[in-house]
Each structure stands twice: as C-alpha cells, then as structure tokens.
Design a protein that fits this description.
With 501 residues, the chain is an alpha+beta fold. The chain contains 20 helices and 19 strands. 47% of the residues lie in helices and 13% in strands. Helix 9 packs antiparallel against helix 15. It is globular. The structure holds protoporphyrin IX containing FE. Belongs to the cytochrome P450 family.
C-alpha cells in the first residue's frame, strides 16, 4: 500500500521529534515535556499556571524544568531558594531577554543591537522615579488625582448616589492622572482631549498583550497593529514638546532618544508608549482589587478610612468635601493599614514570573547542599504566586486580611516557611536586576488614590452580584485582571461624617 506524501512527512516529523527530544542529563532537574511538538506544556500552563505548577511540584518537588513554547524553563518554587537565583549575576541575565520581548511588543527596534550605550542609559534613567524625584512625582500625582476626581466624580449627583463599575472608575481616574504626572498636560491644570478614546485603545492593546509577549506576530492579531500605531502617535516628539509638567523621567528619556539619529519619531513614540504601559498596566488592576476587597469587608474599610482621617487630623488638616487635599509623602508613609491592604491586594492578585536566562552551561547552587545543572539558553523562573498562596507562609491564603502586613502598629516583615525566616515573602514587583523601578511611586499613587476615594466618597457594592475572580489570561505578566467588572454606587461624603457612616 502506498503512503500519502503528507502522512509520510508527518511520520518523519514525529520520528525526528521523538529522536531529538530533549532528555534529562545527570544533575539536571526533572523534565516535564509533554507530547505536543514545540508547544510542550504551554496549553496547560496558560489554562491555570498556578494549578499546573502545584501539580508538577507534587510530582517532582520544588525544582523542575518545563518545556513551554520552544523554551525550557526551570522553575524554582521553594522561596527559601529564591536568594540563590536573585543573587546570581554573571551567569543569569534579564535584560537580554527583555530586549527580545519588549521591542516587538511595543513597536521599537531592539535596543542592545543597534544603539550602543542606550540600554545602560535607559536603565540609569529609571532612577528618576526614586529619591528626590519620587517626592516631585508624588506631589504632582496628588494634584492630578484631585483634578480628575473633582471634575468627573466629586461634583456629580448633587449629594445623591451615582452608579458605576469599579474597574472603569479606577481606570478612568488612575489612567489619566498617571498620564498627566508622567507625560505632562496641554497646559498647567488642564486635561488632554480624547483621553477616553485613548483608554479604549489601550484596553484593546492590553487584551493582546499576553500574545505579543509570547511573540505571536502582530500581523496575526487583527487590528492590533493599527491600534498600537494610534497609541504611539500620541507620543510623537512634536506633540510632546508642547506639553507642560512633564516628569524628569520622560524629559531625560526624550533627550536620550534624540541622540540616536537612526531612531525614527515613531520609534521614540513607541519607547514612551512602553512607559505608559508599565505605569498603568498593573497599577489600575491593583487599585481595582484593593478597592473591591475593601468594599467587601466593612470592618477593613472602616479601619482604613479611620487611619486616613487620623493621619490628616494629626497634621492639623481637616477634611471638607469642598476643599482639595494634599497628602505629603510622610503622611502617606505613616498609613500602615492602608499599605497593608495594598500589599494584601497585591499578594492576592499578582502573578508575575521572574525570568533569568542562563548565559552558559553551569551548575546553579541553590543552597549549601543542593545544586542544579542548567544549559545555556535555558530560563530560570521564579513564580511568586505559589509563594503568595502558600498556607505555610500565609494562613488562610485565599482570604483578604487587611492587617496581615501590620505588627504592633508597624509594617510587618517577618514571614516564615518551615520555621525559617524568608528574605523574599512578597514579590509583586519582581526581584533583583529586573525589579520594578516604579514600585515606590506605584505604592504612593495607589495610596493617594485610595485615601482620596475613601475620604471624599461613600461607596457601596450593588447587591446581588457574584464574586469576581482572577482572569488568568495574563498569568506570568503582572497583576491579573478581574474576570468581570463589579457594579457599585458612590456619593460625596459630608464633612462631619464619622468613618463608619
Ligand atoms: C502595582 C503596580 C506595579 C507592578 C505590580 C509592577 C510590576 C513590575 C514588574 C514585576 C516588573 C519586572 C518585569 C519583569 O521582571 O519582567 C516591572 C518592571 C517595570 N516597571 Fe513596574 N509595576 C508597577 C507599577 C509601575 C509604575 C507606576 C511604573 C512607572 C512608570 C513602572 C515602571 C516599570 C518599568 C519602567 C519597568 C521595566 C524595568 C526594566 O526594564 O528593567 N511600574 N514592573
């Protein structure tokens, strides 16, 4: 009987796959490879990364290698072993990986190949979100939050209730206030036109973000290229040059990009667009989760609101719904219950992967007794969600406990696994060389947003809604989105109200 050429090719392909399939070598971690060529276990991982990893952990222990979409990722799930990965500098690299993934996602050319020195300059520019610059950013954010909240939400309804959805609410306020703070506005105290349009485009792009990061060509993703071009056009140098109140971060980055003649204006716009994604892509869902958890827990809401009022009272300030407020950095720092609620919200919603690429074949020392062999090009991955949900570290890990990160009136940093104190116990912002440079600003702006919302507004969930849960579409990439929005209503608070009212 003759075999069809297609069948023959398929059989040959399968034979090659079986023969060339990676085999575990001595010293290497157990291998989880699956039977689908190239994809490996990518589908199982994409369906529910946390459940998949827990299953592998049960079978193979805390360290194992998974074949995922053509790559081999060695997961280290024991947080007591994290320091060995975070410390490892020379053999494990992050930035080369970032330069493979970010440019095609945001639409600029790879930085490390054609632009000598630019990568290091960009990394240095991230310091402009910290130290003295953090104070300037935080102050500017306060003014912009007040501007947007006052005009859109604090004058509505003449004292009556307004209905809305929590995600939309957080998105509309945080997106615009962050944009004005980082990139500047058309004039002092004025807002850009077309923000709603831009937010919608951003959400369209964001829905495709996981596929772009997985290196699916943008041409296969419907209108995503056109949407991205529209977003990038917002940041063309001619436009941006007329904005005022632009942060030092963006001014410095614009100057750096200007020094490279081979970068086109759209490339520069794409670099700025990447910063927009970094600055709101995680912060908006984080605000959603914390506000949602607080609204579901009246005791927590009351305690946090009381803390904000108390901090204000201690500094001689007084809340009045007609007056704008400015909370200083010191005031924000002293809000430990609010900070704990934010940490708890981040613990429950973050699912980032910390990636390092091995630069050579070597033996990675995990602790005094244990090492694992790694091949050049393999990825070492930490998946902190498994730590955030570990009942040995966090009792009843699925519940929101607003004061979990407070002890004796201070921020709690003592967390233990198997009786040993953990160096890393909460990692929504990554670790080591790839740690988020905007983390201090992020926490400050989330605090500002929540304290203003709790001070100025009475809020209530609308009854009869199902609990929302995490949408795993973004697993591995940061703060997860909710699988549905939540209806709530709100109204301006009266000046003399007690926190409980
Ligand atoms: C809740 C809010 C935020 C979370 C959870 C978060 C989380 C992260 C994480 C996990 C990374 C590392 C990515 C990786 O390892 O691949 C990262 C990188 C980064 N984040 Fe954030 N971030 C937040 C807010 C912000 C804000 C407000 C900014 C301000 C502009 C920002 C700027 C950046 C930048 C520029 C990078 C890239 C750093 C690099 O390439 O070395 N982030 N963020």
């Amino acid at each position: 009987m003759m075999m069809s050429p297609v069948l023959l090719l398929l059989l040959l392909g399968l034979l090659c796959f079986i023969c060339l399939r990676r085999k575990r070598r001595p010293g290497e971690a157990p291998l989880v490879s699956g039977w689908i060529p190239f994809l490996g276990r990518a589908l199982d991982f994409g369906r529910d990364a946390q459940a998949f990893l827990q299953e592998q952990r049960r079978r193979h222990g805390d360290v194992f290698t998974v074949h995922l979409a053509g790559k081999y990722l060695t997961f280290i799930l024991d947080p007591l072993l994290y320091p060995s990965v975070v410390r490892q500098g020379r053999q494990l690299d992050f930035h080369q990986f970032a330069d493979t993934v970010a440019p095609p996602t945001f639409g600029y050319p790879p930085v490390r190949k054609g632009f000598p020195g630019l990568s290091e300059q960009i990394i240095r520019s991230f310091q402009l979100m910290q130290g003295e610059h953090l104070g300037v950013l935080t102050e500017s954010m306060m003014g912009n939050l007040m501007l947007v909240l006052r005009q859109d939400h604090l004058c509505a309804g003449g004292g009556g209730w307004t209905s809305g959805s929590i995600f939309d609410f957080c998105n509309s306020v945080m997106f615009e206030a962050t944009f004005l703070t980082i990139f500047g506005g058309p004039e002092r105290g004025r807002r850009h036109e077309g923000m709603e349009d831009m937010r919608e485009d951003f959400q369209r792009f964001d829905r495709m973000f996981p596929l772009l990061i997985a290196q699916v060509p943008i041409g296969l993703l419907g209108r995503t290229r056109a949407v991205r071009s529209k977003l990038i056009d917002r940041f063309l140098p001619d436009r941006m040059s007329s904005w005022t109140g632009t942060s030092q971060l963006i001014k410095t980055r614009s100057k750096l990009l200007e020094q490279h003649a081979s970068l086109r204006d759209t490339d520069k716009g794409a670099h700025h667009f990447a910063i927009l994604w970094a600055s709101v892509g995680n912060t908006v869902p984080a605000c959603f989760w914390v506000l949602y958890f607080l609204l579901r827990d009246p005791e927590a809401l009351q305690a946090v609101r009381q803390e904000v009022l108390e901090v204000l009272r201690q500094s001689g300030g007084e809340f009045s719904p007609e007056k704008d407020l400015a909370l200083s950095r010191e005031q924000l720092d002293s809000m430990v219950l609010l900070e704990s609620s934010i940490s708890e919200g981040l613990r429950l919603s973050s699912a980032s992967t910390n990636i390092r690429v091995s630069q050579e074949d070597f033996s990675l020392r995990l602790n005094a007794e244990r090492s694992v062999s790694v091949r050049k090009g393999d990825v070492i991955a930490l998946y902190p969600q498994s730590m955030h949900m570990d009942p040995d570290i966090y009792q009843d890990p699925q519940s929101f406990r607003y004061d979990r990160f407070v002890q004796d009136g201070r921020v709690k940093t003592d967390f233990y696994k198997s009786g040993q104190k953990l160096k890393f116990f909460l990692m929504p912002f990554g670790s080591g060389t790839s740690m988020c440079p905007g983390r201090y600003f992020a926490v400050n702006e989330i605090k500002q947003f929540l304290s203003l919302v709790l001070l100025y507004l009475d809020l209530d969930l609308q009854p009869g809604q199902n609990r929302v849960s995490l949408d795993y579409g973004r697993a591995g990439l940061g703060i997860l989105l909710p699988n549905a929005d939540v209806r709530f209503h709100y109204r301006l608070r009266a000046a003399s109200q007690s926190p409980a009212e």
